Amino acid sequence: MELIISQDGRFEWDRHKNELNKRDHGFYFEEILKAFDDHFFLEAYDEEHSTQDEIRWKGIASFNRHI
Questions:
Q1: What is the pLDDT of residues 7-38, one digit of tens each?
Q2: 9: phi > 0 → left, psi -120 to 50 → alpha, else beta; which?
Q3: Measured on CA atoms in the order 6, 9, 15, 18, is the torsion positive or negative?
């Protein structure tokens, strides 16, 4: 497994999963990092996709919101 680490060191992900995400959903993980700094970002535990080995979260951000 080859890890990619974000420039600020807050996030890491697998390079292969990143490519699959681009293919399946149309974006790379690094393209959505600003969502986590959104003041209106909402997140919740993702029970459906979490496992004993990996806890997952789902979130919604307001990328286009202007204040």
A1: 999 999 999 999 999 999 999 999 989 889 99
A2: left
A3: negative
Q: Where are the domains of the chain?
A: 3-60
Q: Are 33 and 9 in contact (CB under 8 A)?
A: no
Task: Give residue 47's identity as a one-letter amino acid code.
Answer: E
* Ramachandran class of 30: left when φ > 0, alpha when ψ lies in -120 to 50, beta otherwise: alpha
Answering whether pTM is above 0.85, one says: no
C-alpha pair distances (Å), 39 with each of 30, 34, 56, 66: 19, 10, 21, 11
